[in-house]
Amino acid sequence: MSPEPAEPGEPGDPVTLGLEGKVALVTGATRGVGFAVARKLAAAGAQVILDYAHSDADAERALRELSGLVGGAIARRADVTSPQQLRALLAEVRERYGRLDIFVHSAASWHPMPAVGARPGDIRADLSAALDPLLHGASAIAELMAGGPGRIVAVSSSGAHRAVPRYVGPGIAKAALESLVRYLAVELAGRRIAVNAVATAKLDKGPDTPDPAAAAALAARTPGGRLTTPRDIADVVALLCTAEAGWIQGQVITADGGLGLRA
Questions:
Q1: Does a structural domain hold residue 135?
Q2: Which of 2, 27, 136, 181 is the most buried (most CB within 10 A)?
Q3: Residue 7 pLDDT level (bands cut at 50, 70, 90)
Q4: pLDDT surpassing 60 at residue 82
Q5: Residue at 263 is within a domain
Q6: Left if phi > 0, otherwise alpha if psi is -120 to 50, otherwise beta: which for 257?
Q7: Catalytic residue status for 183
């Protein structure tokens, strides 16, 4: 796979996108896309709260890797599908920072299965991971962003619109999430809060990329010449958080190197 570009905010690249001092909460932030988003925002000078649900070891590693960036980072363990834990997390944000400027929902769940013979309980779990943080948290998040400008960005997938093998749970969940993004965008635009989503196809996860042969075939089909990386998604999320992106409302921005354009 092709190497990723250098991270803005590292030595030699002072780009901060006007995000210095912003307070950002990222769900699912200690691995994968969530971690890439947290790193991008911290490199741009934001104070980032890394939410995670399971691995303390992943959280400790993430904080070590974020140390020394322009912004700051703390990690908090909370299952954001739990209304009680989500409320407690947002209450701590208010107590510690006084407000929230950016909320990025990257936490997800995936139970591989076909559509015929799907397990309803696992489908509901995937739906819960996609929807519950915003369904339960929208009011409190909007209050923390009072007066704006605020940014809510959800991470979606091309599986919301295409039938990906054994992806029925997150596919349905991401389609519902994109619909929720549109509804929230309409209701929160008047409060100077922009709500959008970023979607992609299969990701290059380095050595952890499953089915290398299939990944190589998709990379060859991608006009950009490689698979999308978590950092590519983080770059687009960060752009949606800038002041210049304030008039983008309720959109799903696809970042896939042009793969979705292929017939």
A1: yes
A2: 27
A3: very low
A4: yes
A5: no
A6: left
A7: no
